[in-house]
Amino acid sequence: MKKRWIIVGAVLLFSLSAPLLFASEKSIGVFIALADNIHQGIAKVPKAIGNGDDPEHNLYWGCTEGLKGVFGKSKQWKLKEKIDHPKEPNILRIRIYKHLKKDAILSAKAYKGSAIKQCIRDFEEAVRTGAYDMVVYIGHNGLMDFNLAAPVKMKKRKKTPDCAVLCCKSEIYFKKRIEEAGGRPILLTTQLMYPGSFILHAAADEWLNGASLSEIRERAGAEYALNQKISKRSGMGVFAKLEKSETNP
Fold first, then answer.
1. Which residues form the domain of 235?
2. What is the total count of domains within the chain?
3. Residue 120 φ then ψ, to 5°
4. Most buried residue, 1, 130, 168, 205, by CB count within 10 Å?
5. Is residue 171 one of the residues assigned to a domain?
């Protein structure tokens, strides 16, 4: 009898503590608008990598420095699930990666280049609802080309997400929108730049290790400098100083 009560007690204890155990998993949601020479105001890239309907060869997805290219060869992340034909008409690919050492999941969606407006809307909705611990947008800064209604901040949401926007001059165009939606900017840009996913790979590594915003910026700047063959100082200059937002609201 005593043994049975010990077992029952252990099961009860686990059931009560299980939500706490699994709640530690970190989630990263990545929204990518494929590079598109026709439907976006980008500096033209070679036709093969600038087709917004072809994710496998696209600059921001299938190429070596695209999301799939970087995380597919990562030694820190392992592919857990892939969906090549999602039901959503404007989403062409979904990839889900799990970190090999940290308790973290990264979910990435590749949107048609012509659906860049929807991609940005979905990114901001994920910020607004707190769908992930970290929410990321990668691609062309569509807000340079069109107007988009600002997201309305929710009074109640699951969490206050950390946010990164890897596109040209994202601080000017996205910072206020993110804050109004209830997010905390942790990595934004000040200049025209190339949003290769190697930046996200490095920034996510720092973020998962609990780095400060200045440390995240420094790591992103160093990786960008290495890729672009410029000085580290110049690389860091691409990213905004967000130290005032160090403390999570």
1. 24-245
2. 1
3. -70, -40
4. 168
5. yes
Q: How distant, in Å, are the alpha carbons of 19, 187, 217 from that of 229?
A: 46, 21, 17
Alpha carbon 208 to its chain's center: 13
The alpha carbon dihedral of 30, 211, 64, 103 has a sign of negative
Which neighbouring-strand residues pair with 91?
Answer: 111
In a domain, 55, yes or no: yes
Report the predicted TM-score, pTM, of the whole model to 2 decimal places.
0.89
- Asked if residue 8 belongs to a domain, the reply is no
Looking at residue 155, what is its pLDDT?
72
CB 163 within 8 A of CB 127: yes
Do the beta carbons of residue 197 and residue 187 sit within 8 Å? no
Q: 102-159: per-residue pLDDT in tens?
A: 999 999 999 999 999 999 999 999 999 999 999 999 999 999 999 999 988 777 766 8
**Domain contains 14:** no
79 DSSP β-pair partners:
97
